[in-house]
TrEMBL record, chain B:
It comes from the Bacteria. Gene3D superfamilies: MetI-like (1.10.3720.10). Its main location: membrane. The chain crosses the membrane at residues 12-30, 96-119, 131-156, 176-197, 237-263, 283-309. CDD domains: TM_PBP2. This is Peptide/nickel transport system permease protein. It comes from Sinorhizobium kostiense.
C-alpha cells in the first residue's frame, strides 16, 4: 500500500484511519473492509474505485453511520471535520447526516419517495435539523432547485418524482444533499444508472458545485473514465483493501499495483480503429431488415385513454455473415425493442426481416419455430436469465432436446461447450447460484451456442459486469465468432464497449437509426449531431485541452 | 382517470350480470324449488300450489323468469318476500344497519391492530414480539370464527359475566352504551382472523418499503427514525393494503354471516340463513345481488382511493 502523506486535521475534511468492518460469519470474506486509511482533503474530489464487492459502498455507509447492525466497525477511526464518527451515538450521527455530510445514491429512480413532492423532500432536510421557518425553507428549496439547473423551479417544487427524468431526479438528489451546505458530499455511483449524455451533465454539475462551494467530495465509482473526468485523487480498492492511492495523475498514468494496472488495461476505450475483418465466411448477407416498425399501445382505445409509443420507426440495415453490428443508443432509443423484434419475441407492425433471404417478420409462431435455433439471444442480467431451480446441464440441454436432439448427444455437446466458454465441465451438474456474474454470462453464451445459431443477438450482454469480467466476455464473444462464423447483433448503451467488438455500428435515437458506419467513422468523424453529442459525452475520452483539471487516461 | 373509471365501471357491470345469472340458476337448481316448504304443509293441495305458481309466475321458463326479475331489479323493484310480502329492499334495509355496524367496527379493529402489529413486526423483525405475532396469526387463521365465538361466550359471558352472549341490545334499554356493550364481542371475534391476515400483509409490505432506496435517502438526510417510519415507510406500505382492504370485504361479509348466527345478531347474515330455510328466493337473490354490488363498489372505491393517494396514478 502506498504511504499516506501526513495531513493535519485542518487540511483533511475527512480522514479514515485503520478502518476495519467485519462481515458476519459464513461470508466469503471475514472483513468488508480491512485496515483502510485515506484522507479527503478540503476542496478536493476523491474517487474511490473498485469492482463490485470491493467494499467501497461499505466505506461510504460507515462514514454516514448507516451501516446495518449486522456488520459492525471492529477497529479504526474516522474523523469528519474534526469530529469522531466511530463510536458516536446514533443521535450524534443523525445530527451530522445531511448537515455536515450528505450522500447521493446510484439509482435516482428509487432514491426519492414516490408519494412526496420534490419540494417536501428537500425542505424535510432543513426541518430535520431545525433550520428556518416554513417560508424560508420553501425559498431555500427553490433556490437549490435553481442552483442544480432544474427548469422552472417554482413549478418543480410541487412536482412528484415520477414526472421527472432520471437526470432530473439525480439533480433533485443533489439539491437535497446540498441543502445545508455540508462539508463533505459522498456520491455513491451517482451516474452509473444514467445515460451517457446525462452522466456527462451530472458530472459537470457536481464538479461545478464542488468548485463553487469549495466542498469536499468523496466519489465512488467503478468507471475509470469517470475518475479521469473529475478526480483530484484516487483510492483503488480490491476485496476490502486499499491497493493503491495517490493523485489522479499518478494513479491513472503510472499505476504501480498490478490490480490497478489490470483494471486500467481492462477499461474499454474508443479505438477509432476498425476491427480487422475476418475472412469471409459463408455467403454475403445473413440478415436484411427493411423499414421495420413497432408501436406500443397501452390503455384502452374505447375510452380514449390510449397511449401510443412508437418504439422502432422505419429501421433498415444489412448484416453480413460472420460480422458484428453494434446497435447503440440511450434508454428509450428503441434498441432493445429492435432486438426483441429480430428474435420475434414481439411481432412487428410493418417492414421486413429477411433472414437468409426469407422474410420472418410475417411468420406465425409455429412457422418460425424451426428457425428459432438459428437465431439466439444472450440476455443482460446474468442473475435473472437463468432458472435458479435448473442445473446448468438442464438449462443447456432442454432447448436442443426440445428441437429433436438426442439427450446423450446434447449432454456431450453441453460439456464440450462449457469448457469452450472457459468453465469447468463439472459445472454441468451445478446450479446457477453457485456461479459469479461473469461465469453466469458464460453459461448464457453456452446456452445460446448449443443451437449452433447463425445469428446471435446480445442485448446489453456485458453491461451488468465489472470491467475486468467485461473484457473477458468480449474476448470470448470475439473468439467464438472467429471460430464459428456466427453473425452478431450487439446491443449496448456503451459506445466504448461497442467500439471493441463491432465491425459496424448503428446509432439509434427515438426509434430511428440516425447514423450507421464503421467505428472509425462513428468515433472520429461522426456525421450526425446526435452521434457527436454521444461521443463527446463519454467520460475520460475528451481531449485534454477541454478539461484543465482532470487527466486523460 | 375518467377513462380508468369508465373502464372499471363497465367491468363491474359485466361482473354483476354474471353473478346474477349464476345465482339465479344455481338457486333454481336446488331440489324442490321455491315452493318446497308448502309441499310439507298438509293444508296445501296441489291445486293451491299450482295457483300460487301461476300467481308468482313460477310456471314460466327459467330464462323468462330471470329476464323479468332482472328487468324489475334494474328499475328498482327487487320483488317481494315470500314470507310476509314485504318489498325485498325493505327487508334488507331492516337488517342492513346491524350488519354494517358489525362489519364496520370489526374492519376498523382489524385495520388498526393489524397495521400496528405488522409495522412493529417489520421494524422489530425476529424479535419476541414478531415471533409471537407470527404464531398468533397462525392460530387465528387456523381456528374457525364460530369456535372463537363460542369460546368468547363461554369465557366472557358464562364464566366472567362481563359481556352479553348475544343480540344487539337489551330489550327496554336502547342506549348507545348498551349497543356498544353488545357489539364488543362479535366485532372482536369477527376481526380476529382479519387482524391476522392484515398484520401479515402489512409486515411484508413494510419490510418491502424499508429496504427501498428512498428510506436510505431519508436516513442520509438525518431524519429521525420515527419520522422515517411515519412519513416515508407507512404511507408507501399502506398503498397496496388499500386494495387488499377492498378485496377482503367478501370475507368480512361471509365472516359476518357466521358471527351473526353465533351471537344472534339481527343482521343480513341471519336474514340470509333464515331466508334460505324458508326458500324465500326473492330475498335470497336480493341479498346475493346486494352483497355483490357492495363488494364491487368497495373494490371500486379502493381503486379510486389508491388513485387519489398515489400521484403516479392520479396525475397520469
Amino acid at each position: 500500500m502506498a504511504a499516506i502523506e501526513a495531513v493535519t486535521i485542518d487540511e483533511a475534511a475527512l480522514s479514515v484511519r485503520g478502518l476495519t468492518v467485519d462481515l458476519p460469519k459464513g461470508m466469503e470474506r471475514t472483513h468488508a473492509v480491512e485496515n483502510i486509511s485515506f484522507d479527503l482533503k478540503r476542496g478536493q474530489i476523491l474517487c474511490i474505485i473498485g469492482e463490485s464487492g470491493s467494499g467501497k459502498s461499505v466505506t461510504a455507509n460507515t462514514i454516514m453511520g448507516l451501516l446495518p447492525k449486522l456488520i459492525p466497525v471492529s477497529s479504526g477511526a474516522i474523523h469528519l471535520d474534526g469530529r469522531t464518527i466511530v463510536g458516536a451515538s446514533p443521535k450524534e450521527l443523525r445530527g451530522l447526516r445531511g448537515r455536515i455530510v450528505s450522500m447521493i445514491f446510484q439509482d435516482p429512480l428509487s432514491a426519492l419517495n414516490p408519494l412526496m413532492t420534490v419540494g417536501e423532500q428537500i425542505t424535510e432536510v432543513l426541518m430535520a435539523h431545525g433550520v428556518g421557518t416554513k417560508a424560508s425553507r420553501r425559498n431555500r428549496a427553490i433556490e437549490l432547485l435553481t442552483e442544480v439547473g432544474l427548469p422552472d423551479p417554482e413549478l418543480m417544487y410541487y412536482q412528484y418524482p415520477f414526472r421527472l427524468s432520471g437526470g432530473q431526479r439525480q439533480r433533485v438528489m443533489i439539491a437535497m444533499a446540498l441543502a445545508l451546505e455540508p462539508t463533505v458530499l459522498i456520491a455513491d455511483e451517482p451516474t452509473t444508472a444514467l445515460d451517457v449524455t446525462t452522466q456527462a451533465q451530472i458530472l459537470k454539475l457536481i464538479r461545478d458545485i464542488q468548485r463553487r462551494k469549495g466542498m469536499s467530495v468523496m466519489f465512488i465509482t467503478h468507471d475509470f473514465g469517470v475518475v479521469a473526468e473529475i478526480a483530484d485523487s484516487v483510492v483503488v480498492m480490491e476485496k476490502g483493501r486499499i491497493v493503491e492511492q495517490g493523485s489522479a495523475e499518478q494513479v491513472l498514468k503510472s499505476p504501480t499495483h498490478p490490480y490497478t494496472q489490470r483494471l486500467i488495461a481492462a477499461v474499454p476505450h474508443l479505438t477509432g480503429k476498425d476491427r480487422v475483418p475476418q475472412e469471409k465466411v459463408g455467403d454475403g448477407t445473413i440478415l436484411k431488415v427493411e423499414g421495420l416498425s413497432k408501436t406500443y399501445r397501452s390503455g384502452s382505445a374505447l375510452f380514449g385513454s390510449q397511449r401510443i409509443v412508437p418504439a422502432v420507426k422505419e429501421v433498415s440495415f444489412e448484416l453480413a455473415a460472420g460480422r458484428t453490428l453494434g446497435v447503440v443508443g440511450e434508454s428509450g432509443s428503441g434498441k432493445s425493442s429492435l432486438g426483441r423484434l429480430l428474435i420475434k419475441l414481439q411481432d412487428s407492425d410493418g417492414g421486413r426481416i429477411l433472414f437468409e433471404g426469407r422474410d420472418i417478420a410475417k411468420l406465425s409462431e409455429t412457422e418460425f419455430r424451426p428457425l428459432r435455433p438459428k437465431i439466439q439471444m444472450i440476455f443482460q442480467d446474468p442473475f435473472a436469465s437463468l432458472n435458479p431451480r435448473s442445473t446448468i446441464g438442464q438449462i443447456l440441454t432442454v432447448g436442443p432436446v426440445a428441437h429433436g436432439m438426442p439427450y446423450a448427444q446434447a449432454r456431450e455437446e453441453a460439456r464440450a461447450l462449457l469448457s469452450h466458454v472457459g468453465l469447468d465441465a463439472g459445472a454441468f451438474g451445478r446450479y446457477p447460484h453457485e456461479f459469479s456474474g461473469g461465469q453466469r454470462q458464460r453459461i448464457g453464451i453456452a446456452r445460446a451456442l448449443m443451437f449452433k445459431p447463425k445469428l446471435l443477438i446480445a442485448d446489453e450482454a456485458v453491461s451488468a459486469l465489472d470491467v475486468s469480467i467485461q473484457a473477458q466476455i468480449l474476448k470470448l464473444l470475439d473468439q467464438i465468432q472467429r471460430e464459428t462464423g456466427v453473425s452478431m447483433i450487439f446491443i449496448t448503451h456503451d459506445l466504448r464497449v461497442a467500439s471493441q467488438i463491432c465491425d459496424e455500428i448503428a446509432v439509434m435515437q427515438k426509434g430511428r437509426i440516425v447514423e450507421h458506419g464503421p467505428p472509425s467513422q462513428i468515433f472520429l468523424d461522426p456525421q450526425s449531431a446526435y452521434t457527436r453529442e454521444l461521443v463527446a459525452a463519454i467520460p475520460g475520452e475528451r481531449p485534454r485541452s477541454t478539461r484543465p483539471a482532470a487527466v486523460n487516461i | 382517470m375518467r377513462g380508468f373509471l369508465l373502464n372499471r365501471l363497465s367491468q363491474s357491470l359485466v361482473l354483476l350480470l354474471i353473478v346474477s345469472v349464476i345465482g339465479f340458476v344455481v338457486l333454481n337448481l336446488i331440489p324442490g324449488g321455491p315452493l318446497a316448504q308448502f309441499g310439507l304443509d298438509p293444508s296445501m293441495t296441489q291445486d293451491d300450489l299450482n295457483r300460487l305458481k301461476e300467481q308468482l309466475g313460477l310456471n314460466r321458463p327459467l330464462w323468462m323468469q330471470y329476464l323479468d326479475w332482472a328487468w324489475r331489479l334494474v328499475q328498482g323493484d327487487w320483488g317481494h318476500s315470500f314470507r310476509d310480502g314485504a318489498p325485498v329492499l325493505d327487508v334488507i334495509g331492516r337488517h342492513l344497519v346491524a350488519t354494517l355496524l358489525l362489519m364496520g367496527s370489526s374492519t376498523v379493529i382489524a385495520i388498526a391492530i393489524g397495521t400496528w402489529i405488522g409495522i412493529r413486526g417489520a421494524t422489530h423483525r425476529y424479535s419476541v414480539f414478531d415471533y409471537l405475532a407470527t404464531v398468533g396469526a397462525m392460530v387465528a387463521l387456523s381456528i374457525p370464527t364460530f369456535w372463537f365465538g363460542l369460546l368468547g361466550i363461554y369465557v366472557f359471558s358464562l364464566r366472567l359475566g362481563w359481556l352479553p352472549a348475544g343480540n344487539m341490545y337489551t330489550i327496554g334499554d336502547g342506549s348507545a352504551l348498551n349497543y356498544l356493550h353488545h357489539l364488543i364481542m362479535p366485532s372482536i371475534v369477527l376481526a380476529l382472523v382479519h387482524v391476522a391476515i392484515w398484520s401479515r400483509y402489512m409486515r411484508t409490505a413494510t419490510l418491502d418499503v424499508i429496504s427501498q432506496e428512498f428510506v436510505k435517502t431519508a436516513r442520509a438526510k438525518g431524519l429521525s427514525e420515527r419520522r422515517i417510519l411515519m412519513k416515508h415507510v407507512v404511507g408507501n406500505a399502506l398503498l397496496p393494503m388499500i386494495t387488499l382492504a377492498g378485496m377482503q370485504l367478501p370475507s368480512v361479509l361471509t365472516g359476518a354471516l357466521v358471527t351473526e348466527t353465533v351471537f344472534t345478531w339481527p343482521g343480513m347474515g341471519r336474514l340470509f340463513l333464515d331466508s334460505l330455510g324458508y326458500s324465500d328466493y326473492p330475498v335470497v337473490m336480493g341479498l346475493l345481488m346486494f352483497s355483490a354490488i357492495l363488494v364491487v363498489l368497495c373494490n371500486l372505491i379502493a381503486d379510486i382511493v389508491v388513485a387519489i393517494i398515489d400521484p403516479r396514478i392520479r396525475l397520469s
